[in-house]
Amino acid sequence: MKSLICFSLILLSLISVVEAFPGDGELVSIKDVSARNIREVAKYAIDEHNSESDDNLVFVKIIEGKWQVRSAILIYDLTIAAKNEGGATKNYKTVVMVSGRDKILYSFNEL
């Protein structure tokens, strides 16, 4: 029950940053990609990618994002800009799944 309440609170905070509230599996554009919770997901993706690779990327900004709910899991599909060690900024496509406080980096690819 406690996790259901936490999940509900997460969904309520997301309503203000998306264009519409999605049905199960419906992909929806994120209206305010600069929102704190969206930035946290993007930074998590970069940190997790860095820990799984030899890269040392640094978050720059979120270019665009979409999200959906599938079986009570939030799935974020983000295009983010990050700087590499040489100072070059490149764009990356990442998918992060969130369930409660748990996050999983599903994919992270340079565009």
From TrEMBL:
Keyword annotations of the record: Protease inhibitor, Signal, Thiol protease inhibitor
Name the domain of life.
Eukaryota
Q: Which residues form the signal peptide?
A: 1-20
Repeat listed as a keyword: no
- GO molecular-function annotation terms? cysteine-type endopeptidase inhibitor activity
- In this chain the Cystatin domain maps to 30-111
Q: What is this protein called?
A: Cysteine proteinase inhibitor
Q: Origin organism of this chain?
A: Brassica oleracea var. oleracea
* Taxonomic placement: Eukaryota, Viridiplantae, Streptophyta, Embryophyta, Tracheophyta
